[in-house]
Amino acid sequence: MAVHELAGTKVRKEDYIDLKAIADAYAHIVPDITNPACQVRFGTSGHRGQAGNGSFTAAHVAAITQAVCNLRKSFGAEGPLFVGEDTHYLSKLAFETVLGVLAANGVAAYIDSDDDFVPTPSVSRAILRYNSCRKDYLADGLIITPSHNPPEHGGIKYNPTSGGPAPSDITKAIETEANRLLAGKNRDVRQIPYEQARESSLVTGYDYKGLYVAELSSIIDFEAISGARLHILVNALGGSGMNYWHAIADRYGLDMDFVNDTYDPQFTFMNYDHDGKVRMDCSSAYVMSSVTKQSGDYDLILANDPDYDRFGIISGSQGMITANAYLTVASHYLMTHRHFDGLGIAKTVVTTDLLARSAASLNVPLYEVPVGFKYFGSLYSDGKIAFSGEESAGGSFIAKDRSLWTTDKDGMIMCLLAAEIRAVTGKLPLAYYDELCQKLGRPYAMRSDAPATLDEKAKISSLTEADVEEKTLCGSPITAVLSHSPYGDYAIGGVKICSPDGWIAARPSGTEDMYKLYAESFVSEDHARKLLDEGRALISRALKK
């Protein structure tokens, strides 16, 4: 894909977001419910939008929170609701709205006892911790985050009693109820002022950070890391877990330096991403270029996005390792260095097929599901998998004793595992990856993003085998056309076309107004580029039908 001239450079002052304008828009814009773009729409994980265009306002957040209050009992939750928030400016505003609605509805809300931000994995961990050994009065959660999206964006997602992202039947029910409330101008929303909610006995402080950090020793070998005397740089990216990293270093005696570890809702320290946007994608080499020049001074450089469910890893002086590559390394290490016999690994349909080759070589089951971490939840709770990953730099795994850790993405444990791998094997992640490629073949992955309207995204999402008339892909026979996942037979919201040499896939973005086209070749980078070109032409023809 084309690289913007500003990619990798520090954000200019003229591109800083206007906090006052965002606050005014959030409070005062009345969303046009007749406009599909202004309705509540849960994508891959939650509702996301912007205040300025009327897609993420106080009205939206109040309606979504009220919908959760109305429906959570039917989802099996009657206990407290855990509330997390990241460092986007709209998250701060939405947090106040959420507490006002929860308190007015008599729902007990657990917020951070230090008034700190709360990462996505910490909320998932809190729900699972609370619900363990319980059969009733179960807890659920709301996480206020648009993930890695630009600073002016906002988002909110619901995690039910399972601790992970809500499945489609639950998100659809919340969508429907929230839009009903919006259509009635929120007359049926119960809400009190934030200041009054904070004084309510229903709002309780909870030690998210302390409990999470203390329990990390159940999943990471800190003795190995501290014993190896690794020198690590953490690029906190101004996110919700920046104080978690300090607590981890202090508790486990790790030699860590920190950058970008203060709250800055304008994210003025950021570098532009590949397309010239300010996007807090810790897995982007352009975003991470501000610290890459220091890679020779550290064994590892670790980073997370604003809600800390994604990872970014610079493999010392070897450079940055891609998300797909690291997922393969992490899963292989876990399956060969933990007592995980009988368990499998899981991936999404657009995550590297090198994971499938690795699973086959280790003789462990592979579960391939649609995009979205919500599809991994039942695999974890049913005790089928030890690890799961998706190409957008999301992953998680179980504890050393095979107990459940999270059912949502956890960028912190993925980063810490890189340090464990280096300490235990003596290999940096990229060196480990190169050895795997020598045995299994080297994949060449590419992705292209293109603008897409809601109608175009709907067309792409509904593509099926019947829409693919071609018999070959870059000269090789097409072996499979998938509109449903190999495991579970779930609709993948797009299409994946496979050949012996590689594959392409197209799906609409769940977070932005675009569609994503993926290609992976086991031949060459040039072959991957040709796969991408053929995929682009195929989608163009489909959109014209």
Layout of helices and strands, plus pairs?
Layout: H1 19-28, E1 42-43, E2 46-50, H2 58-71, E3 81-85, H3 89-104, E4 109-112, H4 120-131, E5 140-144, E6 153-159, H5 168-183, H6 194-199, E7 203-206, H7 208-215, H8 222-227, E8 231-235, H9 242-252, E9 255-259, H10 289-292, E10 300-303, E11 312-314, E12 320-321, H11 323-337, E13 344-348, H12 354-362, E14 366-369, H13 377-381, E15 385-390, E16 394-397, H14 411-425, H15 429-440, E17 444-451, H16 454-461, E18 472-473, E19 476-477, E20 480-484, E21 491-499, E22 502-508, E23 514-521, H17 525-544
Parallel strand pairs: 3-4, 3-5, 4-7, 8-9, 8-10, 13-14, 13-15
Antiparallel strand pairs: 1-2, 2-6, 5-6, 10-11, 11-12, 15-16, 17-23, 18-19, 20-21, 21-22, 22-23
Helix pairs in contact: 2-3, 2-5, 4-7, 7-9, 11-12, 11-15
Structure description:
This protein is α/β, with parallel strands linked by helices and 545 residues long. The protein contains 17 helices and 23 strands. The chain has a seven-stranded mixed sheet with strand order 1-2-6-5-3-4-7, with helices on both faces. The protein has a five-stranded mixed sheet with strand order 9-8-10-11-12. Strands 17-23-22-21-20 form a five-stranded antiparallel sheet. It is globular, with a radius of gyration of 22 Å.
